[in-house]
């Protein structure tokens, strides 16, 4: 399909293509903890304030293998059978009652959280920490975690959980909105010092996006800490300095690179044991620490209490991505935030087992792995092929 400069032809093509909505679809279904299969299931119908979307691209997140393995069964997901998947983009194919502002043919990106809308947190715009988390009867949704997710050909979404894609942003890029939002939210909480120095611990997809968004938000210099192939990727993709923690102590190395002062902000993007303390010890006086990586289970860390107090170190826990999707999509549309080179592999939904293994084992340098439940999403556009 050709993409015109104003996107009109694209929209027309999409609209024509989506008139037929089947009654059944393919979906990744977890029948029980640790089991998964592709099943034929009914296509859901949108409720009021919801749209039915045809899913064109879903990226596998670090949390997906945990959910599939059943590590958090009873919480994520609360019950079986369940369909995970929360980093997605697609097109609106039907609208429920009372939907305003969206119509069939709209290309959209999703975000995982939809708050109840009326609790104190939601009213303050902090719907990612809604007081009614996990209570669907309140209207709360956490798509792909507590509510049906996107590893399927279709799914219904609240209009509060979708954002329109600019015409020149691909479905693959759109699917990366949720993961990118996690980073941007953390940086909005902590702030980024203009012309300052930032350290990023953990050069996975979240770390690489952190490296880039820190620059977009005004940092002059980014130091990335990691090891192996992913650290080399960070260097290739734009890190100013890299530190291999297998060879150097990260705190000593950061201090050596900053004239002994430490960085203005440090972002922990790995969730690994011991890195919280390192982040605290590598920021300068008055420095800020953003905790983005999700640690396994109930990891306890020893933090130098007096050091934090006497140096006025601020620590920001950060969860998900409230109110940032439109910012990310604007940056991507303006080519200021590049995400497309993070997509290393693309698979059909039928090949989900291979996609999952590629992601989990980081085969062939796997970074972001895209699943396309409805066939190739972006293949018609030469400028967006990768
Ligand atoms: Zn995710
Ligand atoms: Zn709420």
How far apart are the first and last residues' alpha carbons, in Å?
A: 16 Å
Bound ligands? zinc ion
Say which CATH homologous superfamily of the largest domain is assigned: Medium-chain alcohol dehydrogenases, catalytic domain
Which structural class do you get from the secondary structure elements? Answer: alpha/beta
CATH topology of the largest domain: Quinone Oxidoreductase, Chain A, domain 1
Tell me, rounded to a whole number, the average pLDDT. 93
What is the share of helical residues?
25-40%
Q: List the domain count as a whole number.
A: 2
Question: Concise description?
Answer:
This protein is of the alpha/beta class and 386 residues long. The protein is built from twelve helices and 17 strands.
Record the SSE blueprint.
Layout: H1 8-17, E1 24-29, E2 37-42, E3 50-59, H2 63-69, E4 87-95, E5 107-110, E6 113-114, H3 120-123, E7 141-142, E8 154-158, E9 162-164, H4 171-175, H5 177-190, E10 197-201, H6 205-216, E11 221-226, H7 228-236, E12 241-244, H8 250-257, E13 263-268, H9 275-282, E14 283-291, H10 305-310, E15 314-317, H11 325-333, E16 343-348, H12 352-360, E17 368-372
Parallel strand pairs: 10-11, 10-13, 11-12, 13-14, 14-15, 16-17
Antiparallel strand pairs: 1-2, 3-4, 3-8, 3-17, 4-5, 5-9, 6-7
């Amino acid at each position: 399909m050709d993409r015109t400069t104003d996107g009109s032809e694209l929209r027309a093509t999409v609209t024509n293509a989506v008139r037929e909505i089947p009654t059944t679809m393919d979906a990744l279904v977890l029948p029980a903890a640790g089991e998964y299969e592709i099943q034929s299931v009914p296509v859901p119908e949108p409720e009021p304030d919801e749209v039915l979307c045809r899913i064109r691209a879903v990226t596998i997140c670090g949390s997906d293998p945990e959910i599939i393995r059943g590590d958090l069964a009873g919480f994520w997901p609360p019950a079986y059978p369940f369909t995970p998947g929360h980093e997605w983009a697609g097109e609106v194919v039907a609208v429920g009652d009372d939907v305003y502002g969206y119509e069939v043919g709209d290309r959209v990106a999703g975000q995982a959280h939809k708050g109840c809308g009326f609790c104190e947190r939601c009213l303050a715009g902090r719907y990612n920490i809604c007081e009614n988390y996990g209570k669907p009867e309140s209207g709360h949704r956490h798509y792909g975690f507590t509510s049906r997710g996107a590893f399927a050909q279709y799914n219904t979404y609240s209009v509060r959980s979708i954002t329109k894609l600019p015409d020149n942003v691909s479905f693959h890029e759109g699917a990366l909105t949720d993961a990118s939002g996690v980073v941007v939210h953390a940086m909005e909480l902590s702030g980024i010092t203009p012309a300052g120095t930032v350290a990023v611990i953990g050069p996975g997809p979240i770390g690489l996006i952190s490296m880039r968004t820190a620059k977009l938000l005004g940092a002059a210099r980014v130091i990335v800490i990691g090891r192996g192939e992913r650290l080399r990727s960070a260097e290739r993709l734009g890190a100013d300095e890299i530190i291999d923690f297998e060879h150097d102590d990260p705190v000593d190395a950061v201090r050596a690179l900053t004239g002994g002062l430490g960085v203005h902000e440090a972002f922990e993007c790995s969730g690994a044991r011991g890195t919280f303390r390192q982040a605290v010890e590598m920021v300068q006086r008055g420095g800020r620490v953003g905790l983005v990586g999700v640690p396994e289970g109930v990891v306890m860390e020893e933090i130098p209490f007096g050091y934090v107090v006497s140096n006025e170190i601020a620590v920001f826990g950060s969860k998900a991505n409230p109110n940032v999707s439109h910012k990310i999509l604007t940056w991507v549309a303006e080519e200021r935030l590049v995400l497309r080179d993070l997509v290393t592999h693309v698979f059909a939904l039928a090949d989900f087992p291979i996609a999952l293994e590629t992601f989990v084992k980081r085969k062939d340098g796997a970074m972001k792995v895209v699943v396309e439940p409805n066939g190739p999403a972006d293949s018609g556009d030469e400028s967006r092929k990768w």
